[in-house]
Amino acid sequence: MPDTRPGFQQTQYTFAAYIRDPAINPVPAGVKPERMAVYRELFLNNVDGFIANGFPVLRRILDGEHWQALIHDFFARHRCVTPYFSGIPEEFLAYLRDERLGGPNDYPFLLELAHYEWVELALFVDENDPPQENTCLSSEILERPLVLSPVAWPLAYHYPVHRISPDFLPLEPPADPTLLTVYRDRDDQVRFLELNPVSYRLLQMLEENGEQTGKHYLTLLATELGHADPEAILGHGKNLLQDLAERGIVGIAHNYTS
Question: Which of 165, 171, 231, 248 is the most buried (most CB within 10 A)?
């Protein structure tokens, strides 16, 4: 079928196709390959910079050749839908999740690590705020309606993504999953807290059924666990909720702003 697009659009598409992947697309007519190489390098360097800044640990653990191959594959394969440079890290995550075919040198935790690093960035720019500090929670946390901070995300990974570094590169997942909440505190610092299965489930409940009292959540948790002494859960759970409230992970429902 003949190309019915206006001539300037045909030129734009040919230009972009060559920049994306010169191995399979011809040089635009009338343009020297040397000049196209300069354009391609400029585009690639910009994309490389945005992704490297958004995924610093991933960048550090990959050697230069592996990193460049990853960036070139993303550049050639993925079609970004965002018009904003700030959205490139999320596009890169989508590429890893949906399009990356993998390679013999890809680490098995590559996608999980990228997701963890993207979460840190996403929470940093999130327009929501953590709950306001409230002194009544030190004594009334079981009676007050509680919600999970909108900038606190409970997360579960197969690999200990928060520990990965050039000196720690696990090739097999441990027996137990890594449970975390990544959150932005009241000083606008993004932090993480390692959780056990019980505290992770508690945060899930807060996320799923907000604005119930602290006692309601802990009683429901005791029922799920089949605990022989629900009062013990209330005692330990109260301390846990107070700690979460001090960190800004949990707050009183009516203290949220829209």
Answer: 248
Residue spans of beta strands (DSSP E) within the chain = 145-148, 152-157, 178-184, 190-194, 212-213, 250-252
Residue ranges, the chain, pLDDT below 50: 255-258
Instruction: Give CATH for domain 7-106.
Output: 1.10.150.690
Please name the helix (run of DSSP H) or strand (run of DSSP E) that holds residue 240, with its range, or none. helix 230-247
The alpha carbon of residue 68 and the mean position of all alpha carbons in its chain are separated, in whole angstroms, by: 22
Q: What is the residue extent of each domain of the chain?
A: 7-106, 137-255
Q: What is the pLDDT of residue 137?
A: 79
* pLDDT of res. 108: 95
User: What is the distance between the alpha carbons of residues 161 and 112, in angstroms, rounded to a whole number?
Assistant: 7
- The partner residues of 191 in beta bridges, in order of sequence, read 183
Q: Which CATH number fits domain 137-255: 3.30.160.40, 3.90.1150.10, 1.20.81.30, 3.90.930.50?
A: 3.90.930.50
- In DSSP notation, 195-231 reads --HHHHHHHHHHHHSTTEEHHHHHHHHHHHHT-S-HH
C-alpha distances (whole Å) from 128 to each of 20, 122, 195 are 36, 11, 23
Question: Strands across the sheet with 250-252, in order?
Answer: 212-213, 145-148, 250-252
> One fold for both 7-106 and 137-255?
no
> What does each C-alpha distance from 120 to 126, 148, 178 come to in angstroms?
10, 17, 16
CB 77 within 8 A of CB 95: yes
- Phi, psi values for residue 230, rounded to 5°: -60, -30
Q: Two tokens at 115?
A: 């997701």
